[in-house]
Amino acid sequence: MANKVKFGLKNVHYAVITETDGGITYGTPKSIPGAVNLTLDAAGESVQFYADDSVYYEENTNDGYTGSLEMALIPDDFRVDVLGDKLDANGALIENKDAKAKHFALLFEFDGDAKKTRHVLYYVLASRPSVSGSTRTNTKEPQTETMNITARPAPDTGDVKAKVNQDDPPYAAFYTAVYLKNAPTNSIESADDEFDKYDPADIAIDCESTDDTNAVKNVLLDGLPIAGVKLTVSGIDITIDKSVFAELNEGEHEIIVEFIRGNAVSFTLTVVDSTPQE
């Protein structure tokens, strides 16, 4: 019997939106751990125009959703990236009355969904989270933080939300980039997955895309961009200069390639040192 009950909110991510006259762009999704509950109510109204003593025209407007997101703890990164809080020179997180919250995309899924559906809301605004606490008693009851959210149609496309199932091509890389309508699918054809400090060599990454005009936007190593002078890009194939890896610790390191359209791709590079021991 198919499981039709949604439960266990998980894999909540946010992607900060940058708005310009030319439209909006989405940052790389960041994880928000500690998801507890998400509620969404449809927003909109039915518009009716009467003529000839009857309903002459009727339309249901889609204004997106309103609701709330409950988390175990709203991370400081989200407070800075989205809510506009600032870190001072001493590491204190400052909330200021003039802070301007940013719109963001919200990505998430429900554990227990039979189709393992993943969702994205394209144009979300969050309120400041409520703050509560209680004195310690003989029982421990975890405190949570809740933000009211509104999800409106994206101003450039009018899209409100999208969802993909586990059999859909965008599913595997869903959290690497905000999925956009008819976005191309990108993948790695081949990549050098080991770097030896004793015999250093450049790392080559050959990529594929269903969009022949796609291009590389960023290449990241352990979450940090690699300088353009260290990259050689041919179409969407990349060569990373060996000097980038010379000072890395031995072990596994993540390389992510972001494109101007479609999902990012990633793989694990293992750094070793086969220098002979005397």
Would you give an account of this structure?
The protein is globular. The N terminus is likely disordered. The protein is mainly β and 278 residues long. It has 2 domains: 156 residues, no CATH class; 87 residues, Immunoglobulins (Immunoglobulin-like, Sandwich), CATH 2.60.40. It has 1 helix and 22 strands. A hairpin with a 2-residue loop joins strand 5 and strand 6. Strands 1, 2, 3, 4, 7, 10, 11, 12 and 13 form a 9-stranded antiparallel β-sheet that branches.
Q: How many H/I helical runs?
A: 1
Radius of gyration: 23 Å
Give the DSSP E fraction (strand runs of 2 or more residues): over 45%
Uncertain spans: 1-6
Give the strand tally.
22
Count of folded domains:
2
* SSE series: EEEEEEEHEEEEEEEEEEEEEEE
Report the average pLDDT across residues.
Answer: 87
Portion of residues within helices = under 10%
- The N- to C-terminal Cα distance equals 64 Å
Largest sheet: number of strands, sense, barrel closure: 9 strands, antiparallel
Shape descriptor reads globular
| Category by helix and strand content | mainly beta
